[in-house]
Structures are given as C-alpha cells and as structure tokens.
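User: I've been going back and forth on whether these two constructs are worth ordering. Before I decide, could you fold them both?

Assistant: Sure. I'll take them in the order you sent them. The first construct and its structure tokens:
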Amino acid sequence: CKHMNNLGTIDIYDFYYNGSYLSSHDGVVAGSNGFKEFSLLPSREDQTESVIGVDGEILVSSKLEPRQFSVPVLWNDISGMKIRNIAEWLDSPTVQDFYFKNDTIKLKAKLDKKELSINNMFDIYGMNDLSFIAYDPYFYEITPTVISTITNQTFTNIGNKISFPDITVTTSAECYVLITFSKDNVDYHKIQIKNLNGTAILNSSKRTIKDANGVTLESKLSLLTGSRRYPYIEKGSIKVTVSGAYVTACSITPNFRWI
C-alpha cells in the first residue's frame, strides 16, 4: 500500500486536503463495507508496434497514467449551510496536497471533474464517495528535505525512484558555477551556469532556469556530463558538489518520490 507510509501510525479515518482536515468538516472516512482499498499502482499506457510475420507485438514504450482513487466519507452534519461549506472546501480547480493524518508522504491531487452529490440520511447525515485524481502519480514528502551547501555534501535518495530537484544558487559577483552529482565516485550529471551574477533558480521537473525576477537564464545553462539537460537524482547514496569563485549560497530540494 503506497497511499501511506506506515499503516501502524496512520489515521485512516481522516485526511488532509485543500488546506484542512476532513474531520474539521464533520466528516470521517467510512463506508458501507469500511475503507479497504488503497492505491497501489496507477495504470500504464503501453505503446506497441506490430511487425509483419512476427507473432504478437513489440513493446515500444510505457508510461504511468494519472493515479485515481476513491475515498468513502460519512458526513455527520450536512444541515443548514454546512453542506455549502463542504462544497467550498472540496472545490479546487488545481491540485492540492492530499495525505492521511499522521502520514509523511503526500499526493498532489484534486477531485475529478464529475458532478458530486451527497446521499442524505435522517436529514443531517450524509454519505458519498470522493473520487480523486493525481495527474502526477508519484508520492512526495509532506515536508520536503532541503540540502544547503556551497562545497559538497553526501545524502541518500530515500525515495524508490529517481527524482528531479529544485536548485537555487546565488553568487556575489559574476562567475561560472558548476553543479555535479555523483554516485559510487562516478560523476553522472554535471551542469555549468555561465556568467551568473545574482540568483539562478532551476526547476528540473519543469525544465526551467530563471533569475530571481523570473527572467529565463536558459542561454547560460550548459550540460557537461549526462544525458538529461536538467539535474536528476539517482537512487542510493549521492554526492553533490557546488563550485564557483563567488558562490555564496546553494539550496537543493531533492523532491524525493515514491511510486
């Protein structure tokens, strides 16, 4: 079960979404048969090709699709304007942090776009299933790890997949900046930021590099080692090295992730 990190400590009757807990809206995770199903793996989209004279098909590529899951909820009081307050809480056009109480990992999810209703019981009680979708199917730390260094530091990718870090580096004067990631004493990824004077903000998942004012610095970025233009963090023990004559600060958010 990858909905949660440790079933022994997680409160499966309450979850956090869109800024508040279910319990603060007089709700509890429940259902006619209890809550027994957790999202283990999202579905996959496989691309295949057929070859004349060859039995079957050849798998060309495969990618994860968005993760979809459903949570049954019992509402203890939907009288008066409380049902409207519930609607306000659940209504979000963007993805929000979703996690069960006391967990340490989260999804970035939103309610699916279908119309939602509540089955009313005895005037004040209600029950429904909340269907969520996480377009990014991976789990992330609720409180992200941040690594600060202006020389080098060794850390462990605690997730079970490679991750794509956010990096902010600042210089006090114009200089070249090198950022190197290595594993088992072998450099597997190295980038260079040319003539940086100020702050550069790299977002590896979105593949952007900008200054503090949001102006692109794409022309200053060069890939020296590796197959990807933007940094990534392999599984296992990783060493990151930051060098530059006038580097005054560098923070790295690894964005550890789990399938």
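The second construct, handled the same way:
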Amino acid sequence: KLVNANITGNLKIEELLFKPSKGPFLKNTEAIVYLNTTIYLTHKSFFVDETSYAIIDEEKYSLVSFVQLNQEKKLTLKINAPEADFKKGVRLMNTKIRHDLAKITVTNPVAIQATIIAPIGKSADPELYVSMSGKNNNLTIGNTSIPYNKVSFTGYLRSMGDKGQTTDLTNGAVVFNDIKGFVYDHPFTANVSIDDLKDPKIKIKADITIQGSKVKFKPGTDFILDGLCLANVDYAGDIAHLNNRSLAKLTSFKIINPSD
C-alpha cells in the first residue's frame, strides 16, 4: 500500500547525529521545507522525490531521500545546490568536517552535490560523497595571505566512514583538481589534496607563470624587470603549518624567456 504526502512548513532541527565523537550535522538548524513523499507502508520505507527542497540560512537545497525503517534501517540523502555559499554549506557539516575545512575560504557561490548514506539507530560514521565546482572565485588556503583570484576548480570530498578499508577512505579526503586562476596577477594551474581528515595533511602542486613586467616592487625601486619565469610549487605537510614562508621555501624558479 502507498500513501502520498506533502509536507511543508518551518522545521527546527536540533541535530542529526550519526557518531557522537565526530559531532552532529545540522546542529540547531532552522529550515523551511517542501517535501513530496511516497510512503510504502508494507516495506516500512518512504521516498522523498526530486521536487522537494529545503531553505536553510537563505540557501535553497534540492533534496532526494530514501529512508528504510525495516530490518536494514538506513538513510540515503542527496542534496543539490547549484549556487551555494561555501561557508554556509560547511556549517551544515559535522564538527570534524567544519574544523577541517575551516582553513579554506571561498568567497563566491559554488555548485555542490552531496550524498549521505547512514544507518539509523546506531552509532556509525556515515558515507559521505560531495562534489563541488566553482568559477571566477577567490580563495585562500591555510594560514597564508596569498590571494588566489578568478579561480575555477572542480573538487570532491569522499569518506566511506566505518566501511572504509584505509585511513583515507575511513576518515575522508578532499581533492581539488584542474584549479586555474591568478595569484598576484600571475596565471597559475594547480592540484590540491587533503588526505586523512582525522589528521589532515595537504599536498599542493602548482605551476605559476610570472611575467616580469607585472611584478610589483616596493617604492624606491628604480629598475625594470622583464621576461618570463615559470615557478613550481610542491608542498606536502600539515595544513595547520601551511603559511607564506613554507610555500616560499618550496618554490623553484626557471627563466624560460629572459628579456634582452
């Protein structure tokens, strides 16, 4: 037997807790919800279809969910936001993920698709799969003051929770691929990965093309720098220790088109 139901209104979520040691998702969250559901009474399950959505902190999230309350007791939740505020989206994550992503600042909207798969009624880390992309964005990473401007990127967060067979799969990893943009007005390309979110380590590989005529000197400099230089950055270490000085030490330079 099927029952169709439409659920709308204001909702106060105290928390969505899967594993106490990692902290809750959606803690003290107020939402406006519009849910179209189909309830399967015989199978003790219900489906929330793709026309459903929630508005949280003025951000609209499209929702699809399947909840099983039979022997398996499992929640599958898919969230889609084509233009989400990165900071607001991170606030919805659990305490551990919020802490790990606090070192990344993204100023403009990003497209986010997330899937959460979790058992109901027992303590366990959920499976979490998040993909994200952005264009013409501004970023900062770690404790650096380096400005990354007009940045386009694709990235993902993967965590298999208690089903993971390695620390990266269990504790999660964040990867940003095909990053392109400008740093101090110089074009760059990069790949960034953060492995093992329980004890996060960051890896950065980047190429920066430096046009000498665009290098800004301090007042009083009386010579002109010209030509083209390729800078390579290769950093691996604790994200908490990532700063301007550590990046400078691991940057190599190659002049590929010296001025006459």
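Notes on the second construct follow. The first helix runs from residue 86 to 91. The CA atoms of residues 155 and 176 lie 4 Å apart.
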